[in-house]
Amino acid sequence: MMQSYDKLTTISSLDKLTHIISRLPSIGEKTAMRLAIYLFNCESEYLEDFAESLNSLHENIKLCKKCFSLSETEVCSICENDKRDNSIICVIESFPDMLAIERTKEYNGVYHVLGNLIAPLKGIGISDIKIKELLDRTKNDDIKEIILAFSASLEADTTAGFIYKKLIEENFKGKITRITYGISLGSDIENADSRSLGRSLIDRLEIE
Fold this sequence. Notes:
Elements: H1 5-9, H2 12-22, H3 29-41, H4 44-55, H5 57-60, E1 62-63, E2 70-71, H6 77-80, E3 85-92, H7 95-104, E4 109-113, H8 131-137, E5 145-148, H9 154-169, E6 175-178, H10 194-202, E7 205-206
Parallel strand pairs: 3-4, 3-5, 5-6
Antiparallel strand pairs: 1-2, 6-7
């Protein structure tokens, strides 16, 4: 009896790698297969470096103890920089957002990385992100401003609203602002052009 076409063309190792790659954000099955085949065609030296980088990822990279950004040291270079304005904290969702803001060269304060936004439909609640840690930081009387720098989305509005409410409840005395200009609905800070993002920082509005 002849074997089916699917069985004849199944390569378990390639299928496994394709499945692993397809779990990456924005990677479909066809793209994952192309990447798996690309890796197969790469030189062994490259694959060894690639594998070593993956294996050491959690060992070499950690969360900054102050702002929870990614760092190779206990405290990241921005938090350690005495030339940064520690009285202003820019609250962001993720590390790529921080990189995008840094590229604008319009901000000289420090950051607080939440790690995600409140999204009940995705199973992400208040306790899953670094809001408590932010509130702890704002108990320092030296903090003059909290900037909420999120992409435009329902989750961002929910998170911003909750943080604002908690800061008021905690009697935070400084300003609470949010970036606005140049960030349209559904757009990501990570992918915004530097000029528009820089403008949105400069023209941020105080939340009332």
